[in-house]
Amino acid sequence: VNILAIESSCDETAASVVCNGREMLSNVISSQIDLHTLYGGVVPEIASRKHIEKINQVIEEALREAGMTLDNIDAIGVTYGPGLVGALLVGVAEAKAIAYAKNLPLVGVHHIEGHISANYIENKNLEPPFICLVVSGGHTHLVCVKDYGKYDIIGRTRDDAAGEAFDKVARAIGLGYPGGPKIDKLSKEGNPNAIPFPKAHMDDAPYDFSFSGLKSSVLNYINACEMKHVEYNRADIAASFQKAVIDVLVENTMKAVDRYDMNRFAIAGGVASNSSLRAAMEVACAERGVQFFHPSPILCTDNAAMIGAAAYYEYMAGTRHGLDLNAVPNLKLGER
Ligand code: ATP
Ligand code: MG
Ligand code: FE
Question: How far away, in angstroms, is 98 Cα from ligand 1 center?
Answer without folding.
Answer: 29
